[in-house]
Write a structure and sequence with these properties.
Number of helices: 21
Largest sheet: 8 strands, mixed
Helix content: 25-40%
Bound molecules: zinc ion
Distance between the termini: 77 Å
Number of strands: 30
Shape: globular
Structural class: alpha+beta
Radius of gyration: 32 Å
Strand content: 25-35%
Length: about 675
């Protein structure tokens, strides 16, 4: 039977509205009731079997709890939840899953052997994954009940969850259906239905999911052993490895967000699927706070700010490359100028300044700077006296990002990086790393970011000499200790090793937080042993023999474009003076002062400041001041009769603070000082 026919049959069996349901919720389809009946049968059998195993064995096992305490438990009977209750009721209430000897476990799943027990809460990334993964089952159950959906897959994502299901080849899920779907999800959550874990044989699996061709295909393709795990929760039965929450009542707040289409791409012909996404939290308060945060984030979205302030735009003729308008270029150049002067001290003799100042000017499609810098190192014989050799570059880089992944300034096909490479002798490593860390701190402090450092150590499948790695790890650890900021160790565990790291790198990850406390990953410091070998880079050592340098890759802003986006959102369009594309607007009180206002504007512009003139006499003075403040001009210079005759300006800030009358020359001087020192709050300290 084709999916279409099957679906029609399901719909027909499901659509007689049940009198017990007051809302427009159809009675559960027949197949749903059948499946649930079989599940209950198998569940009762499993409960009986477990109880008898526990009784027969009656074995005491040792459990080590978080904090080091060790307690006794009964095999096949004691659950992590019971032990959490012994520790504290808060822990028992907030735990979402357990970790037993490193394996993720349901809180209600009986322990089997001596175990090292940990608990996951919503506060950790893994805890969130369990929470959202459980929530997507609730969404699936609601889709089955309301829409007669044939469920396909429902993963957690970085921020929430989605569920893909089949509604028939023609039918799509409409945005107008989300509120009803959401209501059912909330009812299911309020019903506090337990998640029940059942081990089922291949035959039982095929019986349970006989009405779901997707699950049947999954069973065929993915279930290799004699049994697999299914979970029951309310009317839902789903093929899933788990773990899940104890019950749906732990989901205090749930919101559905989007509906879209997707595709089933397993073996066989692709099938059109419907996707609904959502987010959930342990409490309603957390959901509300998230919603507020999202509204704020939407207001602060750099794409919105970029459009409103005419900083940049994108064009379909060149997707993934940003067109900076004059005001955006102003911010961009201020940022590059900020990162460049310290670079030319630090990256002294060999600053490679051949890069064109605008991406559009270059014809080369260079994806990264490392090889170019290696060639520069190698282009003539090098001596130990030249080390450390520091090369920096702002050249345009190009990456073939998929069109689906492009979004604003976050991911581009064409961008610039503040990319530096330091070629040094092994004994210079520590000083150089310290220099990089100091530089990083000085830059982030000015930008108003806090940051956290993490050292990723070598993966288990590393290349090269173990003793070289040991030494390098020690050097990095010493440099981090010396630096004095808190840092953590990410042991190079193969499974948890990020895709960015390759087996030839040691890396200091920089997790920065913007003014809103949101995390970003921009800068990086990487130590590379492989690159000098690959490019056969050598220098003449002190003893006269050729030696290989070590390479440090270092970026502080990362992509300048992306950093500009991060900064736009971080300040919400209220740029600090030194980056601001809206520094000053001169507002003449009447038409008689326009000439003087123009002169003041010219003076400011000649000093290199961004200055506009608002001589629109159609609006009252207070309306124009208000308009300037809404446009986030750091300062408004109002000039009337008195100011004109005394060659002064009357200054207000964008927060409507009146700074009074200033001599024009002195005001320009003061603005330049504040710009050059890059103070974050020029309006307050003027
Ligand atoms: Zn699941
Ligand atoms: Zn590099």
């Amino acid at each position: 039977m084709g999916l279409c026919q099957r679906w029609r049959r399901l719909r027909l069996s499901g659509l007689q509205t049940c009198r017990l349901h007051t809302a427009a919720v159809p009675a559960p389809p027949q197949w749903l009731a059948e499946r649930l009946g079989l599940f209950e049968e198998l569940w009762t059998a499993q409960v009986k079997k477990l109880a008898s195993v526990a009784q027969k064995e009656h074995r005491t096992i040792k459990i080590s709890l978080p904090g080091g305490q060790r307690v006794d438990a009964v095999a096949w009977s004691t659950t992590p939840y019971q032990l959490a209750q012994q520790i504290s009721s808060t822990l028992a209430d907030t735990a979402v899953a357990a970790q037993v000897n490193g394996e993720l476990y349901d809180l209600e799943r009986p322990l089997e052997t001596d175990s090292d027990l940990r608990f996951l809460t919503f506060s950790s990334a893994e805890g969130k994954a369990v929470f959202w993964h459980s929530s997507t089952h609730v969404l699936g159950a609601a889709a089955e009940q309301l829409l007669g959906a044939v469920l396909c897959r429902g993963p957690s994502t970085e921020c929430g969850f989605y569920h893909d299901f089949f509604l028939g080849k023609e039918r799509t899920v409409r945005g107008s259906e989300l509120p009803a779907l959401e209501r059912i999800c909330q009812e299911l959550a309020a019903a506090a239905q337990p998640f029940r874990r059942l081990e089922a044989s291949q035959d039982q699996l095929r019986q349970l999911f006989k009405d779901n061709p997707f699950k049947l295909r999954l069973i065929e393709e993915k279930v290799t052993g004699p049994t697999a795990i299914v979970y029951g929760c309310g009317m839902l039965v789903d093929l899933c490895r788990g773990p899940h929450l104890r019950h749906t009542g732990q989901i205090g707040g749930l919101k559905l967000l989007t509906n879209s289409s997707s595709l089933w791409r397993s073996s066989g012909a692709p099938e059109p699927l419907q996707r609904v996404s959502g987010i959930s939290f342990p409490t309603m308060e957390e959901l509300r706070a998230w919603e507020e945060g999202r509204e704020e984030a939407e207001l602060r979205d750099h794409r919105r700010i970029g459009k409103a302030q005419e900083l940049f735009f994108f064009h379909e003729l060149s997707p993934g490359s940003c067109f900076f308008l004059p005001r955006g270029t102003r911010v961009y150049n201020a940022l590059v100028a900020f990162i460049r002067p310290p670079d030319s001290d630090r990256l002294s003799s060999s600053l490679s300044d051949h890069a064109p100042s605008h991406p559009a000017d270059t014809l080369a499609l260079k994806p990264m700077n490392c090889p170019a810098h290696c060639l520069m190192f190698a282009h003539r014989p090098r001596s130990w006296r030249e080390l450390p050799l520091r090369l920096a570059d702002f050249g345009a880089l190009h990456r073939a990002e998929a069109s689906g992944s492009l979004g604003g300034l976050t991911r581009l096909r064409c961008f610039q990086q503040d990319d530096a490479h330091i070629f040094c002798a092994p004994d210079q490593l520590e000083t150089e790393i310290q220099g990089c860390l100091d530089f990083l701190r000085s830059v982030y402090t000015v930008l108003g970011f806090s940051f956290r450092l993490a050292l990723s150590t070598r993966p288990s499948s590393f290349l090269g000499e173990p003793c070289l790695w040991d030494q390098a790890e020690q050097v990095l650890q010493r440099a981090l200790e010396e630096f004095g900021e808190p840092w953590e160790l990410n042991p190079g565990d193969g499974a948890f090793y990020g895709p960015k790291a390759s087996v030839s790198l040691l890396q200091i990850d920089v997790h920065l937080r913007d003014a809103l406390g949101r995390p970003h990953q921009c800068g990086t410091i990487q130590l590379d042993f492989q690159l000098p070998l690959r490019f056969d880079l050598q220098y003449k050592g002190q003893a006269g023999a050729p030696e290989h340098p070590v390479v440090i890759h270092r970026a502080v802003l990362g992509s300048v474009e992306r950093m500009l986006g991060v900064l736009a959102e971080s300040c919400g369009g209220k740029w600090p003076l030194w980056l601001s594309p809206f520094q000053v607007v001169v507002i003449p009180v009447g038409t008689e002062q326009e000439e003087y206002a123009r002169e003041a504007q010219r003076r400011l512009q000649a000093a290199g400041l961004v200055c506009d003139l608002d001589a629109n006499s159609g609006l009252t003075l207070s309306r124009r001041v208000r308009r300037a403040q809404l446009a986030h001009y750091n300062f408004q210079f109002v000039v009337g009769q008195k100011e004109q005759s005394k060659r002064t300006v009357n200054i207000r800030t964008r927060d409507n603070c009146q700074l009074g009358e200033w001599d024009l020359t002195e005001a320009v001087q003061r603005l330049l000082e504040l710009q050059n020192t890059r103070v974050p709050n020029a309006e307050q300290v003027f």
